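Hi there,

I know you've been waiting on this one. I reran it after we fixed the sequence typo, so this is the corrected version. Both the input and the resulting structure follow.
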Amino acid sequence: MTRAPLVIKLGGSLLSDPRDGRLQRWCERLAGDAAGSAVIVPGGGPYADAVRDAQTHWRFSDDVAHRMALRAMDQCGLMLCDLFPALVACEDIDALAGHCTAGRTPVWLPSRQLDFSTDIPRDWTVTSDSIAVWLAARIGSPSVLLVKSCALPEGDLPALAAQGIIDPHLPQIAARTNIEVRLAHADSPF
């Protein structure tokens, strides 16, 4: 029996400083020794921040901001695959397991699948954190690892959501799907 791959969300904050080596260490490991063991869900990074800034100035709807943020995740995913060519960009959920079985690490681009989906709220209560849990439930992965650059205090998911460490929807979707969510600091070993 084939085990479902782990879903690893690489936070957009890992893109904040290309010189710190955090993003490089995680991607090199996932494309090298750990290839095929995980699916990467990219955060939106500076592209999602640009959506937030534009919405503040132009006051367009949360629904459109959500769709733009999904594309921000796509953009980060495409960037990762260009910087680390052993990673594979993949829009098709049904193809993710096949890439892993073949020893490759796919980077999931979510906009095609979630552009009009109402499976999750279509506002800023959902970020790539909850989207990673949604994907894990869809592909049968029992757990998600969220890699973040901020300090990670002790606490359950509701407490972490209240502190802004994870998005507000994550405790609900994790409980509903029974997906285990773990957090790792970007400096920690994989």
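Quick highlight: Strands lie at 6-10, 38-42, 87-90, 105-108, 143-148, 180-185.

Best,
R. S.
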